[in-house]
Every structure is written in structure tokens, then in C-alpha cells.
Design brief:
By secondary structure, the protein is mostly helical. It has one domain: Recoverin, domain 1, CATH 1.10.238. The protein is built from eight helices and two strands, in the order H-H-H-H-E-H-H-E-H-H. The protein has a two-stranded antiparallel sheet with strand order 1-2. Helix 3 packs across helix 7. Keywords: Plasmid, Signal. It comes from Sinorhizobium sojae CCBAU 05684. This is EF-hand domain-containing protein.
Length: 143
């Protein structure tokens, strides 16, 4: 009886540790909140914030905006991973209102466009696979 309790406790601890240590993984079905087999920009922003959350991490002064310096610092921490962004896409391209700051909407729009390969304003499951790769271990977002 004692051995059984010890085994259960050890197994329970191992499961708990693995759940805490396991990286967050993007799940297409969870991100596709309305179940229409495509992820629109709003669904993307919600899922990206929940599973990746880098906007808040990169916004070091907590003003809900990213300065060029915050963007560069955040982006630079990922320079060992392959970027999902074209080399010619950057902060200025995402700054839609030219105020030298990125709002969370501008940031999400820029990231969203990087994964919408066909430019149809819907991320389908094959496109979403690229994001899943980038969120996984060693990926660009590596959460």
C-alpha cells in the first residue's frame, strides 16, 4: 500500500511538472473562435496575445505602444531564429499612422500579414502551420 501511494505521488508530480514546463502551442481550432475554417485579424490578435504575448513583453515602459527601440530590442532577442518577416518589412511599414509608435493593432496587423501568405485577409490552416512552427521550440516566437 505504501509503495502505491508513493508511486501515485511521484507520477502526479511528474505530470504537474510536465504541464508547467510544456510550451504553449498554437491550436487552429482554438484561434478560429467562430469555427469558419479561417482566422481573421481579430481572432489572430486574441490568439497571438494568449499564446505568444510578445507585445506586452516588448512594451517595456508599459505605455501600450512600441517605440522603435522597444521593437528593435524585442525583435533582436530572436535574431538566432529564422524570421517570418521579409527583410524589407519593419517598424516603419507597420506604423500605419506614422506616429513613430506601434499600437497593438498595428503590431498585430503586421504580424498577421506575415502569416497570410496569399493576402486574402484570412489565415487558413496551412498558413497557420507556419505560425505553429514559429511558436514551437527554437522558432522565432519560441514561447
Amino acid at each position: 500500500m505504501m509503495k502505491t501511494n508513493w508511486t501515485k505521488a511521484l507520477l502526479g508530480s511528474a505530470v504537474a511538472i510536465s504541464l508547467v514546463a510544456a510550451p504553449a502551442m498554437a491550436n487552429f481550432g482554438e484561434w478560429d473562435a467562430n469555427g469558419d475554417a479561417g482566422i481573421d485579424n481579430e481572432e489572430f490578435a486574441a490568439g497571438f496575445d494568449k499564446d505568444v504575448g510578445v507585445f506586452g513583453d516588448w512594451d517595456t515602459d508599459d505605455d501600450n505602444m512600441l517605440s522603435q527601440a522597444e521593437f528593435d530590442a524585442g525583435y533582436g532577442t530572436r535574431d538566432t531564429a529564422e524570421s517570418p518577416f521579409d527583410d524589407d518589412i519593419g517598424f516603419d511599414d507597420w506604423d500605419a499612422n506614422d506616429d513613430d509608435m506601434l499600437s497593438s493593432t498595428e503590431f498585430h496587423d503586421g504580424v498577421y500579414a506575415a502569416y497570410d501568405d496569399d493576402g486574402d485577409n484570412i489565415i487558413e490552416e496551412p498558413e497557420f502551420g507556419d505560425l505553429g512552427d514559429d511558436i514551437g521550440d527554437g522558432g522565432f516566437w519560441d514561447v
